[in-house]
Amino acid sequence: MEALLAGYDGAPIAALTDALRIVLDRPDGLWPELVAAGGFSDTRSAALLVGEERALDALAAELNEQRDLQDG
After folding, report:
1. Contact 32/49 with Cβ under 8 angstroms?
2. Which of 33, 47, 64, 69 is disulfide-compatible with 52, CB 3.0–4.6 A?
3. In degrees, to the nearest 5, what angle opens at C-alpha 59 toward C-alphas 54 and 66?
4. Structural domain boundaries of the chain?
């Protein structure tokens, strides 16, 4: 996950799309489809879809935390 999120600063949605494709096992998923499949609240989904920086940063942090837990 760390490598996937390495490009986050330059292209956050692209990096999160790549990460969610793996997490959700949807290798061809597009950003809106992945957000819909992520089980987020309507408010959070809307924020992610419009590219709200705080929402994107929070998702990146969660994905990093999930990676840390898996690495153990």
Report:
1. yes
2. 47
3. 145
4. 4-71
